[in-house]
Specification:
Blueprint (H helix, E strand, L loop, with lengths): L1 E7 L8 H12 L4 E8 L2 H5 L9 E8 L12 H19 L3 H18 L3 H4 L2 H11 L6 H4 L3 H14 L8 H4 L4 E4 L7 H10 L3 E5 L3 H11 L7 H21 L2 E4 L2 H9 L20 H4 L6 E9 L7 H14 L4 E6 L7 H18 L15 E5 L8 H5 L2 E6 L8 H8 L3 E5 L4 H5 L4 E3 L4 H12 L2 H18 L2 H18 L23 E2 L79 E2 L3 H4 L1
Parallel strand pairs: 1-2, 1-4, 2-3, 4-5, 5-6, 7-8, 7-10, 8-9, 10-11, 11-12
Antiparallel strand pairs: 13-14
Amino acid sequence: MRIGLLTEGGYPYATGEARLWCDRLVRGLPQHEFELYALSRSAEQEERGRVPLPSHVTRVTTAPLWAPADDGRSYRRRERRRFAAAFTELVRGICGADPARFADGLYGLAALASEQGGLYAALRSETAVRAVESACRAPEASREVQRAQVADLLEFVDELERMLRPLSLDWYEDLSEVDVCHAAAGGVAALPGLLAKRFFGVPLLVTEYGVQLRAHYLEHSAHSARDERPAVRALLAAFHTRLAGEIYSQADLLTPGNAHARRWQERCGASRDRLRTVYPGMEADRFAAVGEDPACGDPHTLVWVGRVDPAKDLIALLHAFAEVRRAEPRARLRIFATAAGPGHHEVGHGYLADCRSLAAQLFPDEAADAHAVGENPVTFEEIGGPDAPSPAHAYGSGRVVVLSSVIEGFPITLAEAMFCGRATVSTDVGAVVEVIGGTGLVVPPRNPRALAEACVSLLRDPERAQRLGSAARARALELFTVEQNVAAFQESYLRLLARGPARPDGTGVPFEQPPEARVPGHWATPTWAAPHPEPTPSAASGGAAPDPAGLPAPGEARPSGTPEGASADASDAPVPDADPAGPGVPGVPGPADGSGPGGDRVMVPAANSEASS
């Protein structure tokens, strides 16, 4: 099977979880051929180079979303009219409440791009700006959109051109030949697969471990207090909402990573019968040494692992730990920071400085006497340092792992802690409850007192913490391994291939012919396949019994010239050959023997081969 894997800003370039799960998927299915179609986000990403790829990756095609894509093309008058009509439908669908207009405009632009070779100049033309302005001034547009100024229109058109660049790619001739298109994310990454399904009927599978629409809302709400203009933010949100709705309505199968993502997809228009939850897969072997030794780690230490940013609410964790220290003076808190993702370096650095300052105020250095060196009960460390060369060492440094987030999708760090057999205390956000089940304690977000009480209860009852940790490891091994993830996608691929359209070149697929058609032996035509002639009157008997199927209904007029008791068309029925299989070679289909497409006829063994011959 040939799989077209679509990515944006990830595999085969970026590091991190977005790359890892794609790499595990590709390496876990060596029986299939993979073709990678990657949209890159930055020049630095491409300069880092690709990760090593297995031999069954037969094609790697990339396209940048960060560089100008001026194709130097200019449209004639007829093409300009087509562009104006399609683009007007698109932006009317964005600004209005009719998703069908958005879809019509999107596919109209895609068809024009495939014929003319690109949309760069047209999307940045004055025609495009005027179409957006007209849509923003329409009565059905929202109040924020109606207030758009010229600068807002130009900024939105620039962003829209970047997001619609996949329409102008030369990927679609190759994508039309794959068996399944698998988009590793929603949004722009799924756009090539959406067009391949629309124009070539290629089945589309979309996987979202983080809902792209939700991520867009969170990212732009964080920047709303800064330099982003309200009208541009509203227009971009409307575009992503319409695109998500079209992807969810057209995809053959959607595989959200958790029930939280599934609810988002359902609310945006996804049909429940095309949704299947597939949890992310993680390598359990990396955490086996710690997970199989529940006694390792300091019983008085709380551990936090993750990316440092405001959504993790480390401020609340520090305030909660102040109460923990009052109840358990020997308690310690170790904060391990993982590498920040793209766009998070500046925010994470500033937030980390604030957390360090607060920790210094809440927990001054303590010393046993006047001659000892003071130590702080809160430490800030990094994964990869001398004390924690790997995440497993970080989780193994304590007995209880804490998650204090106010925003969370699928909590990867929580699942890793479960593989390590750690008891967990988490806030009730995102998919936290779904992940831990009954193997950890859950408290409301932004509630330092409840967080502190849960931590103290586990620090004071190490046996309970060990029981919860053992149950958590068993649950993680059952649900979140690479093996179950790969098996789920293998089943999904086969299901989509089975439901896909017939191949246009007539290439056969496995099991399309039943085995009876190929097994050698003496065969006879089954009764249901043999032609049945209509009965004809016999001259010797003075007429056969009438055929009930040929009699008219009571009260119905007979055709003129038809004798009573005879069928209207019995005399015209053809008389078949005595041996439908043809003389001499039983079981060889002839031209009029009921053979199916390609001349193959399904036959069953005769009950008595002597009699049938």
